[in-house]
Design a protein that fits this description.
The chain is α/β, with parallel strands linked by helices and 467 residues long. It is built from 13 helices and 19 strands. The structure holds S-adenosyl-L-homocysteine, iron/sulfur cluster and FE3-S4 cluster.
């Protein structure tokens, strides 16, 4: 069984065609012969967006992106190490590629596995030439110059930096929703999590720089932006000019911007001013991703999450008290060391109380360097699997009921998918639900349309366009 269960993905969304709509088209040098790169990305939205920025750096240096590793002179893997399986995938990909590599290519490992494993990657995969973690991406132009000069072992592994990764151009993949990092790294210390080690300390971008990029995005036609950070709401403007909630408001006031999203929020730093901003500004999407991780205060304490079950439920009550219904999604880990049947039952009862619109659920995976790796009383894999299945089934029923309650309502969607079947489209509501509908009109991609919900499943809605 897949270890993720969430609102959203369905048959249509994987088929997004790319539009000719790229800020990277601005003053790009002509590609030089032989300077080709292929990049594959694993992991979270921050990694996806980092890859877009890395692609911008490469295009700026005259590289051209190609679709297969075979066709590329430079092959980059932007990696994730959040769970063991994710990290293993990277080494199996590197292993597969070894066979095809005759030394004529430069292979690079970027991202969280690069930061975590460092130079050991050269030992496990000696055909790798570049190892660079996300906190060192500002050094990429230098590292690339070294590779181009023929150096075969190049690393960027510092994390003790205040700097953020801002580039002259970013080659965005998604033509409808533009990602934008506003805070990098993480200063929380959740006992299970590698991110503070792999992404370094928390660094916020200046609000002036964020707003400038939003204006540029609006200029090239984006109407939806998603502000990113591992703890996005811990954002602190280095110039101390504005708070996170004020930044949300300022972004939503940029002419041309119709939708503003942000992810991921940490419950500890989630305050009333964010709810008030969403309540009063329609452009701020009515969706909050607020990971709870467990419904048991005992386990939350062991996880070092810095809030109790009751405190989390208070934050939730604050969101539910908004005048505008706000959709809430979460992340949950089952089988954390020492999780008893009672702790797990507490998580299930929290699901009933919270009534989430989507849950990403995971089996606990022990990770290097983290405090939890040495905790006693590990839960057997089969038991973790059983708990995950129980949790997912419980949530499936909740989501089905919540989505069915939307039948008959009309929502505005931004159309971002087209099915191979004629006249079938997919859009996202402000609450981030997938709403599929049929319409004979040609090319609706990128348009906002009104759709009335006719049917509902646990992960998506089906409706009719309202003209
Ligand atoms: N910064 C975000 C999410 C980080 S990673 C936050 O604080 O919520 C995304 C999710 O992966 C986490 O919310 C958590 O549910 C899960 N995760 C992180 N480390 C994990 C581990 N060692 N085992 C299983 N799941 C993990
Ligand atoms: Fe990991 Fe916790 Fe930071 Fe999220 S807040 S990235 S779970 S350490
Ligand atoms: Fe993975 Fe790193 Fe993101 S570990 S989830 S790619 S921050």
């Amino acid at each position: 069984m897949a270890d993720q269960f969430h609102v959203g993905l369905d048959v249509l969304t994987g088929e997004r065609p790319l539009m000719a709509h790229s800020p990277a088209a601005v003053r790009q040098p002509a590609p030089e012969a032989g300077r080709t790169f292929y990049m594959e990305t694993f992991g979270c939205q921050m990694n996806v967006h980092d890859s877009e920025k890395v692609a911008g750096v490469l295009l700026r240096r005259g590289y051209r992106q190609v679709d297969t590793p075979e066709a590329a002179a430079l092959v980059l893997y932007n990696t994730c190490s959040i769970r063991e399986k994710a990290a293993q995938k990277v080494f199996s990909r590197l292993g597969q590629f070894k066979a095809g590599s005759d030394g004529s290519k430069v292979i690079g490992v970027l991202g969280c596995v690069a930061q975590q494993e460092g130079e050991q990657i050269f030992e496990r995969a000696p055909w790798v030439s570049l190892v660079c973690g996300s906190a060192s991406y500002r050094k990429l132009p230098e590292l690339l110059a070294e590779l181009e000069a023929g150096n075969r072992r190049v690393t960027g592994l510092d994390t003790d930096t205040d700097e953020t990764f801002e580039t002259e151009i970013t080659r965005r993949d998604n033509p409808f929703r533009a990602y934008l990092t506003i805070i990098e790294g993480c200063d929380k210390a959740c006992a299970y999590c590698v991110v503070p080690f792999t992404r370094g300390p928390e660094r916020s971008r200046s609000s002036a720089s964020v707003l400038e990029e939003v204006r540029q995005l609006a200029d090239v036609g984006y109407s939806e932006v998603q502000l990113l950070g591992q703890t996005v709401n811990s954002y602190r403007d280095p110039s101390r000019r504005i708070s996170f909630a004020e930044l949300l408001v300022a972004v939503s006031e940029v002419p041309g911007i119709r939708r503003v999203r942000f992810t991921t929020s940490h419950p500890r730093d989630f305050h009333r001013d964010i709810v008030e901003a969403i309540d009063s500004i329609p452009a701020l999407c009515d969706h909050v991703h607020l990971p709870v991780q467990s419904g048991s205060t005992r386990i939350l304490r062991a996880m070092q999450r810095t809030y109790t079950r009751e405190e989390y439920l208070e934050k939730l009550a604050m969101i539910r008290a908004a005048r505008r219904p706000i959709s809430v999604t979460t992340d949950i880990i089952v089988g954390f060391p020492g999780e008893t049947d009672q702790d797990f039952a507490d998580t299930l009862s929290l699901l009933d109380l919270a009534q989430y619109d989507g849950v990403f659920s995971f089996k606990y995976s022990p990770r290097p360097n983290t405090p939890a790796i040495s905790m006693a009383d590990p839960i057997p894999e089969e038991e973790k699997g059983r708990r995950l299945a129980v949790l997912q089934e419980r949530q499936r029923r909740i989501q089905t009921a919540r989505n069915e309650a939307l039948v008959g309502q009309t929502f505005e969607v931004l159309v971002d998918g087209q099915s191979r079947k004629e006249n079938q489209w997919a859009g996202r509501t402000s609450s981030n639900r997938v709403l599929n509908f049929s319409s004979p009109q040609e090319n609706l991609l990128g348009h906002y349309v009104q759709v009335k919900v006719a049917r509902a499943g646990p992960n998506s809605l089906v409706g009719e366009r309202v003209i």
